[in-house]
Amino acid sequence: MTYVMSDLHGCYQQFLQMCREIDLQETDDLFILGDMVDRGAEPIPLLLDCMERSNVYPLMGNHEALFLRCAEQISPQATAENFYQQFFPFIHEVCTPWLQNGGDVTLNQFLALTPAKRQLMLAYLSEFSLYEECVVGGVPYLLTHSGIRNYRKGKPLKDYAPDDFLQARPDADTVYAGDAVMVFGHTPTLSLLPAAQKAEVFFTESYINIDCGAVFSDAGGRMACLRLDDRKVFYV
Q1: Residues 230, 220: Cα–Cα separation, whole Å
Q2: d(CA 14, CA 133)
Q3: What is the pTM of this model?
Q4: Is 201 left (phi over 0), alpha (psi -120 to 50) or beta?
Q5: Alpha-carbon gap, residue 205 to 92, rounded angstroms
Q6: Residues of the chain with pLDDT under 50
């Protein structure tokens, strides 16, 4: 079976619950479409878990891109105890955009790792792809974090800029006219369909948005998982 999730944002306990809900097996494939980190309570435990799973395939999200941009420049001497005092100019110049987007929890948990473990994690993150293509049940799918910004039919995927896969904001009327069904997250369906006010996976003829706002549970958000084989949706 092939499963797709997105925008877990450190909701590690819900992720574990979802793995039990779908009865994830080692023979299954699970694609996570970016934004595993920031905002939620346990982004680093979530990453550490997924690093050990050979059947989990993460994609780059805009939050991982921010994380990498900052963390790759953090001194090995930095710790959770000294970082905010000794590295203030660096925080101000490099880390502010990340911290303003919910990166503080990720940063503190990252700094609690040993330097060796940090390097392993950064190497893992640097391998995240911008998109994946797969065929399930004879249906071609294109998996990205956000859809594709500045989309043009027939334009090769390699010709798009990285941010085009990370920062798109499709609306309910957006049409992707390619051969594959696009699956993405990034824009919670609660905001995509304000009239409906439902945290539900949103299906159109050309795309599927699976970001149901797991980290925004106070606003009615929840975690969603789509099984591509039969398009069944699971929620926790």
Answers
A1: 26
A2: 26
A3: 0.95
A4: beta
A5: 44
A6: none
